[in-house]
Please model this.
Amino acid sequence: MAEKILEVKDLHYNYPDGTQAIKGIDFSVEEGQMISILGPNGAGKSTFFLHFNGIIEPTSGEIIIEGKKLEYDKKSLLEARAKVGVVFQNPDDQLFAPTVFEDVAFGPMNMGLPEEEVKQRVEEALEVVGMSEYSHKAPHHLSGGQKKRVAIAGILSMRPKVMVLDEPTSGLDPNGASAIMQLLYDLNAEGMTIIVSTHDVDLVPMYSDNINVLRKGKILKKGNCREVFSDKEVIDQADLRLPWVGQIFEHFDLKDGRTFDGEGYPLTVRDAYETLKNEL
Ligand SMILES: Nc1ncnc2c1ncn2[C@@H]1O[C@H](COP(=O)(O)OP(=O)(O)OP(=O)(O)O)[C@@H](O)[C@H]1O
Ligand SMILES: [Mg+2]
Model:
């Protein structure tokens, strides 16, 4: 069995105004997994993610990175952030430097890497997200989707073992969203452990087969795409819906008069193609 790279034990988090955003989460990630967290607005996804490298400290419970309990002194946090990189939901919370280049260079510079290596990593990260030609531009002059790409590059340049992305596709154009998901998929194939949150039920099944549904600060369900999307109660409770492809099939009757049961819906275009070929 693969090593557990990240563990969360009985996590609770209350905001200072008393909001109980996380109400007891146990969660573990094995090295090399690609996990998605689905959940409606306010479910606690962003709050959950901010715990993974100590950006916020739990009210109770613990975070364990590579078997070591996360502590909140400066040295431990630096160490944690070199291993686990978190891309914020809103890039304006992340980007701060005068130029794109300096922003993406900040992480690796903080890790104490030599200047030449920093430069090389920045160039590579910007290339990967398709933003090389913007390296001298001010981040606040970029479009929303461009900022998002730069924010991703800023974490990529640190080459963390685990990359955590809070809604990486929101605000991106359709090709941009697919390109980012494909990029994450490729990074995962090369061995990076990836955790993403999203509302995008159409894109998720294509890239991740390990889903956790979050609702009201708790994990409501864990499973693969089929297990999650065939559970109508969970989908309703979490304000999710079937992928469009699956919804179309709700309206189809098969040749011999059978209908699809919840478990049989194709969830991706490829599944749909196979089903249509065989059944209609
Ligand atoms: N700074 C804050 N102070 C008080 N309550 C907060 C704060 N930030 C978030 N919350 C509350 O915590 C809960 C979880 O919010 P969170 O942002 O983690 O949800 P989310 O799942 O990321 O939602 P979204 O899909 O809209 O991004 C919500 O009820 C929210 O109102
Ligand atoms: Mg959020």
